[in-house]
Amino acid sequence: MRRSSPSSSLPPAGDPNARRNDWAVIGTLLPYLWVYKWRVMAALVCLIGAKVANIGVPLVLKNIVDSLSITPSHPYALLVLPLGALLAYGALRFSTTLFTELREFLFARVTQRAVRTIALKVFRHLHALSLRFHLNRQTGGMTRDIERGTRGVSSLVSYSLFSILPTLVEITLVLGYLAARYDKWFSIITAAALVTYITFTIVVTEWRTHFRRTMNELDSKANTKAIDSLINFETVKYFGNEDYEAKRYDEGLQNYERAAVRSQTSLSFLNSGQSLIIAAAVTAILWRATQGVIDRTMTIGDLVLVNAFMLQLYIPLNFLGVIYREIKQSLADMERLFGLLEQHREVADAPDAKPLVTRGAQVAFSHVEFNYDPKRQILFDVDFTIPAGTTTAVVGHSGSGKSTLSRLLFRFYDVQQGSISIDGQDIRHVTQDSLRHAIGIVPQDTVLFNDTIEYNIAYGRPGASHEDIVAAARAASIHDFIESLPDGYATMVGERGLKLSGGEKQRVAIARTLLKNPAILIFDEATSALDSKSEQAIQTQLKEIAKQRTTLVIAHRLSTIADAHQILVLDHGRIVERGTHGQLLAQRGLYQQMWDRQQARQDEDLASPPLELEQD
């Protein structure tokens, strides 16, 4: 199969054309939250209640201080304090915490369900994308994008609804009170500080955002190199390239380090500027309040109130800068996550697609033409039929298009011209799920999940009983081997099944396919990577399970398909010969040439004398 040139699964983060508008990202997120609209609204009510109670605390404190200042030397001053003010102070303090916790309680399910729903949707969408996408993807970088994106959803929801909005509510209440009760300079200074602070924060944070994008991209690239190297651990060892791989990984880490240092330097500048603005504002406010007490236009309680207001504003204002930065970073993280959802599904079910109904499972390729790339066509006018319950073998040189037939039958790709049908049903007009349930495959390179042998066999039919799994293993002649292992069916097979030999993996694949019990079987050079003894044993099993099933065999060794009902010879994407083994040999064409070469090679192997050990 021809692979496209490697590329990232998404456009580069630095490409402005690839970026989503921040509001577009938020707009994509909102429907996931609005599913729980009543919880959201109740949480917002609690949010406002908490801020109103928080503003009430300094007001009650002012009354208490003023009451104390009236009779400061009275020995029973505490007795003359308004008892209601003390109770109100305690109640407001408690109410602030109570409303905040109620808000968190109400919104916890909303946030977590949104994260879960989005992550699951992305996961399903990735499985729905075409094989072309997954051949071009970079697994390490993509998994980081998903991880950061889902974390960004939680951060954005938390910061925007529970920090930005309550801060704005508190600022509005404080400014309103200062403007109504005190000298206009209090509200002017406070408003000016707010405008300066917010403007400075937004401008500098926007400038900093590209550092975060660069860090994300470099982090994904470094992680991709690491995972790719670890997946190909044996190849690295074969060539002794551990140092080379470490240097490649370190290059990515160095680039990330430089971007992280630039990001931290700009963050320090932002924090220093914010602190300067707040310090100047607080100093000016306290100077005006102190002057008011001296002029007797304000009481000590007013001074305490203004100071408490400024302290209450200082904390959320300082936090507001952090929140804005976190929101921008979360949006940058979510941008790539939602970008995955926008990847086009090259192969999708038709709107009126119906489940496939098999009645013998006759397969027909009708004048099929196909290419992975318009510049290079793979199949030309391929036309053949596999009668129900028979075996058709396809042979040809490497690159002739043999394996493409199985991918088209599974509908990993759609044909450009012609059609493929099963029992007269065009596979483009049936659901992909029902189509793939009707087909089983034993591939050349069997890849297993890093789980138990039982799990990997059961993958053919999730939910199958242990008895059914054992029966499939017996039919694949691997049960005795499994039972001989210390952990039996609970034995872990390792990453990609590397703890098992090639023959053992093939038998697991056969058992998995038997458990699936499909109407159509595909053997895609299922034994070409095995030694002769293993191949002979497994070929016997393959022929047994192919009985009474429609079978497509993609073969390399011609001796394994000599008894097929029909043999097709592919050459450069065209069927150049067809017939039984005997008929094709009689034609003395390409098939006969391939047969003679393989027979000659076998004769050479048999004629080679065994190696003798040298005697001393």
UniProtKB/TrEMBL annotation:
Residues 363-597 form the ABC transporter domain. It holds the Pfam family ABC_tran. Keywords: ATP-binding, Cell membrane, Membrane, Nucleotide-binding, Transmembrane, Transmembrane helix, Transport. It is found in: Cell membrane. It is a multi-pass membrane protein. Residues 42-329 form the ABC transmembrane type-1 domain. Coiled coil: none annotated. The chain crosses the membrane at residues 40-61, 73-92, 156-179, 185-205, 267-287, 299-324. This is ABC transporter ATP-binding protein/permease. It comes from Massilia norwichensis.
